[in-house]
Amino acid sequence: xxxxxxxxxxxxxxxxxxxxxxxxxxxxxxxxxxxxxxxxxxxxxxxxxxxxxxxxxxxxxxxxxxxxxxxxxxxxxxxxxxxxxxxxxxxxxxxxxxxxxxxxxxxxxxxxxxxxxxxxxxxxxxxxxxxxxxxxxxxx
Length: 140
What we know:
Helix content: 10-25%
Largest sheet: 5 strands, mixed
Number of domains: 2
Radius of gyration: 23 Å
Low-confidence stretches: 6-29
CATH class of the largest domain: Mainly Beta
Strand order of the largest sheet: 2-8-7-4-5
CATH superfamily of the largest domain: Immunoglobulins
Order of helices and strands: HEEEEEEEE
CATH topology of the largest domain: Immunoglobulin-like
Number of helices: 1
């Protein structure tokens, strides 16, 4: 009888332990991707190529994980530039391109390695009324 009680106790402990491990894994995979652009800010004047300071949580970046797209209009239906990322925070440079010159509302979006755009609002950040000066012939 003591052997049976000990075995039951071990099974209960193992069941609880595996349940806690499973719960932790589920919580980790459900973390929400979050993108913040620290610079430029609304109304900024920048010269291309221009630096973008950013911070990302809840999303892996890198060649096999994800990157950031920069849109000058409607996400998925306007001019875009891909910006590779190697860290979840830091500074990257948006290259000079003729489609960037002028006043722009820029939307930064997190994108998976397979090219699919994250749809969560927290995975996007819009900076409005940015005056970008640069070469109108860049990239040609």
